[in-house]
Structure formats: structure tokens, C-alpha cells
């Protein structure tokens, strides 16, 4: 960064035009333009001081101590956070650089136990949310697409890293890392002093590989903002009076976690005066949106798994039953909002009329059950049918299914050795 380039950045951050700033310090616009573009060799100290005061900058300017941390954050974990917080406490400004490579990241996902692949935007969000109250931490991203995988490709990587630092006017005093081997290469190729923090993982003995392979085993190392990504969603489906709500409550209590109740019932009371006769076609999109909000809340605060009472297929089945047609918005929710486990309860328990149920005859119950199965199949949604009418057997079978879901993991591979280096 050239001598007065920081003034140009400060003008932008304070929302001043050149003319506005020039008027405040009593110089011409042309003079100020030459000053911030480093065209004036010996500017007036008085004018410089006035400009710094207008821009709320210290004068004479103190050289900032700038730090950098590189990482994949795939996913972000508490070891990363410890490194970043240690680094942030040693500098005036810390630049955290999220490194991503589409091919490599997809390969890591394929070898993981994650049910979905984190996007670059997911990783941005985790970093931004985690450090949103620390103004001295800035987030950037660096594409590593096309660079040979670690341990090769260092020269190409360094060229891109230098360009990113230059483009963002980052004059680093130190690069912080937990990898001694990488620290050596950073210093050699970027010409910046490197600081190694907790190389032995004595404080945070965790790696992204371990979390990708067994997220629930290492649950305590997953940050609050990242946990919802790993939460497994279990939907319990069935017709009226099939025991869905009771089973959801039992499972949530058993696994010490959250649940999302069926929003449609709440909607009837909050919007329709407690009577389903007022329900019409235009209500089903609102019910789906409300249910999505219930699910989001349950997932945000869940302990590894969240139990969902009813899904969008069920909402669509009710719409088709009562309105005689499919709702396009509900169908869109079916296609985009999927669950990790869908349990379909056979509609063979005693029917209880609670005032909001109208499908109590044996024929209607079977017709609705058949429709649920048909819609699940047509939408390519795998499900497990529990056919027992015994409540305890249903409960125990559900527990077994959930335990299988939480214990599902892939075998570790040799990618561990190459994963935790160059960009942790």
C-alpha cells in the first residue's frame, strides 16, 4: 500500500466525496485528489492533521499491525476459532481468508459423513456470524480452483494469495497458522513473518476431517453457528389421529432435543377462529411457510437431531383431499425442503375426535394413507413405514431408526493427511 492510500479508503468508509472533504479542511478538490493518490511529496502537516480529524483517524498515523489467517473452514470448528481469536488479540486488524476449490471440496464431501455439501456461502455465513461483533476481523475469500492439490501447487497458490492481499490493500505483518510446515511456506513465498499457534492442538484437539467423518462424536467442537448445518431432521408422518404428535414429543424428550409442532393446527386457531371450515386453497402456502419457520427454530436449537411433526407432503395431501387439487407452492416446498429420515406411521391406532379431525372412517383413513404413500413415492422421498399399532413398539422402533441415523458414518480415508494443510 502506498503512503496515503489509506486516506482514500477512509473517505469511502465515512461517505465523503472529495469535494465535501476538501471543503471541510479548506483545500481544493484537486489538491486533495493529488494528496490521496500520493502525488504530493511533502504535504502540509496542518492539512494532513485536519483531514485525519475529519475522517476520525489518529494523527500522526500509527502503523497498524495487520494479521492474516488462511483456512478452508470446511467446516469452521472451535480450533479455527481459537486460532483466529489468538491472532486477533495480537493485531489491530485481522484478515481471515476463506480458501475454496470446487473439485477438492466436493471430493472432501464425498469422503465425509455429511448429508449435504457446505457451499462457499455457508462458510462465509459461519465466519460472518461468529465474528460479527469483532470489527477488527475482516473476511475475504480466495479461489484455489485449478491449483494442484496439496502438497503441490504452492507457487500458483502464492501468486493468487499475493494478488488478493494487494487488491484488498492488506500489508500483513504476520500470518497465523497452526501448521508449522505451512508456516514455513507462507514465510518463504509471501515474505511475511509467520506465527504458529497451538501446533500440538493441546488446547483444541480437533480437525475438520474428524468433524466431517463423525460430527456427533465431536459435537462440542462445532460452533453454535455451524451446528444447525449438521442437525438431522426426522419427520413423523401419518393421517389424523395416527399418534404423530405424541411420538414426536416422546422422541424429543428421549433425545433431549427440540421438535417442531404441526403448524397447520396452530394456524387454524390463530387465523381461522379454531374451525377448519374456514380453510381455503390460499391458506396452504401460508401453512407451509409457517411450518418452515417452526422447523428452522427447532433446528437452530437442536441437540444433534430435531423431530418434525408432519411434513409438506402431508400438507399437500390435505390440500388435495379438501380442495381437490395440488398446491404449486406446497409442491415447491416438497421439492426443496427435504428431511434426513421420514417415518410413516400406519393409520391403525384408535381414532380420537379432537374437533379438528374429519377423516375418521376406516375408508377415509385408508384413502388418506394411500395418498401419503403415493405422494412420497412420486416425489422420490425414501421413507420407513412403521406398521405396528402398538404405541410402545412404534416408540422403540423409532428410537432404533434415529440411533442408526446418528451413528451413520463413512470410513476415514487417506485425505486426512492432505486436508489439514496449507489452508487448514
Automatic annotation (TrEMBL):
Highest taxon listed in the record's lineage: Bacteria
Molecular function GO terms recorded: DNA binding; nicotinamide-nucleotide adenylyltransferase activity; nucleotide binding; ribosylnicotinamide kinase activity
InterPro entries in the cross-refs: Cro/C1-type_HTH, Cyt_trans-like, Lambda_DNA-bd_dom_sf, NAD_biosynth-regulator, NAD_NadR, NadR/Ttd14_AAA_dom, NadR_NMN_Atrans, P-loop_NTPase
Gene3D superfamilies the record matches: HUPs, lambda repressor-like DNA-binding domains, P-loop containing nucleotide triphosphate hydrolases
Keyword line: Nucleotide-binding, Nucleotidyltransferase, Transferase
Residues that, per the record, bind NAD(+) 1: 70-73, 77, 104, 144-157, 177-179, 204-206
BP-aspect Gene Ontology terms: NAD+ biosynthetic process
Domain HTH cro/C1-type stretches: 7-62
PROSITE patterns from the UniProt entry: HTH_CROC1
Sites where the protein binds NAD(+) 2: 259-261
Annotated NCBIfam families: cyt_tran_rel (TIGR00125), nadR_NMN_Atrans (TIGR01526), PRK08099.1 (NF005988)
Descriptive protein name: NadR type nicotinamide-nucleotide adenylyltransferase
Organism field: Listeria rocourtiae
Amino acid at each position: 500500500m502506498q503512503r496515503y492510500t489509506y486516506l482514500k479508503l477512509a473517505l469511502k468508509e465515512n461517505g465523503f466525496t472529495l469535494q465535501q472533504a476538501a471543503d471541510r479542511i479548506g483545500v481544493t478538490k484537486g489538491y486533495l485528489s493529488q494528496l490521496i493518490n500520493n502525488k504530493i511529496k511533502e504535504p502540509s502537516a496542518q492539512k494532513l492533521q485536519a483531514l485525519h480529524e475529519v475522517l476520525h483517524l489518529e494523527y500522526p498515523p500509527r502503523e497498524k499491525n495487520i494479521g492474516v489467517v488462511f483456512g478452508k473452514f470446511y467446516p469452521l470448528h472451535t480450533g479455527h476459532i481459537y486460532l483466529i481469536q489468538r491472532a486477533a488479540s495480537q493485531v489491530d486488524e485481522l484478515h481471515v481468508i476463506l480458501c475454496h476449490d470446487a473439485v477438492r471440496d466436493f471430493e472432501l464431501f464425498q469422503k465425509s459423513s455429511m448429508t449435504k455439501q457446505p457451499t462457499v456461502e455457508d462458510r462465509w455465513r459461519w465466519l460472518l456470524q461468529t465474528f460479527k461483533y469483532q470489527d477488527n476481523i475482516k473476511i475475504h475469500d480466495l479461489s484455489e480452483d485449478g491449483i494442484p492439490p496439496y502438497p503441490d501447487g504452492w507457487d500458483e497458490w502464492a501468486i493468487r494469495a499475493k494478488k488478493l492481499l494487494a487488491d484488498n490493500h492488506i500489508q500483513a505483518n504476520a500470518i497465523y497458522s497452526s501448521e508449522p510446515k505451512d508456516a514455513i511456506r507462507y514465510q518463504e513465498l509471501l515474505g511475511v513473518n509467520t506465527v504458529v499457534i497451538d501446533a500440538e492442538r493441546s488446547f483444541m484437539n480437533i480437525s475438520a476431517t474428524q468433524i466431517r467423518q463423525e460430527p456427533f462424536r465431536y459435537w462440542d467442537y462445532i460452533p453454535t453457528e455451524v451446528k444447525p448445518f449438521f442437525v438431522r431432521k426426522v419427520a413423523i408422518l401419518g393421517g389424523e389421529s395416527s399418534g404423530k404428535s405424541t411420538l414426536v414429543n416422546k422422541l424429543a424428550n428421549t433425545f433431549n432435543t427440540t421438535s417442531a409442532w404441526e403448524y397447520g393446527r396452530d394456524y387454524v386457531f390463530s387465523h381461522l377462529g379454531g374451525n377448519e371450515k374456514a380453510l381455503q386453497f390460499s391458506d396452504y402456502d401460508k401453512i407451509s411457510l409457517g411450518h418452515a419457520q417452526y422447523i428452522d427454530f427447532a433446528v437452530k436449537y437442536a441437540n444433534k437431531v430435531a423431530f418434525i411433526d408432519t411434513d409438506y407432503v402431508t400438507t399437500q395431501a390435505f390440500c388435495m383431499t379438501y380442495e381437490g387439487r395440488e398446491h404449486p407452492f406446497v409442491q415447491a416446498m416438497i421439492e426443496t425442503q427435504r428431511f434426513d429420515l421420514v417415518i410413516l406411521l400406519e393409520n391403525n391406532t384408535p381414532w380420537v375426535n379432537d374437533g379438528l379431525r374429519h377423516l375418521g372412517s376406516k375408508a377415509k383413513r385408508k384413502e388418506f394413507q394411500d395418498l401419503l404413500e403415493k405422494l412420497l413415492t412420486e416425489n422420490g422421498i425414501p421413507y420407513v413405514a412403521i406398521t405396528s399399532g402398538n404405541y410402545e413398539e412404534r416408540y422403540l422402533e423409532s428410537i432404533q431408526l434415529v440411533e442408526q441415523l446418528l451413528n451413520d458414518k463413512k470410513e476415514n480415508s487417506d485425505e486426512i493427511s492432505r486436508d489439514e494443510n496449507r489452508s487448514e
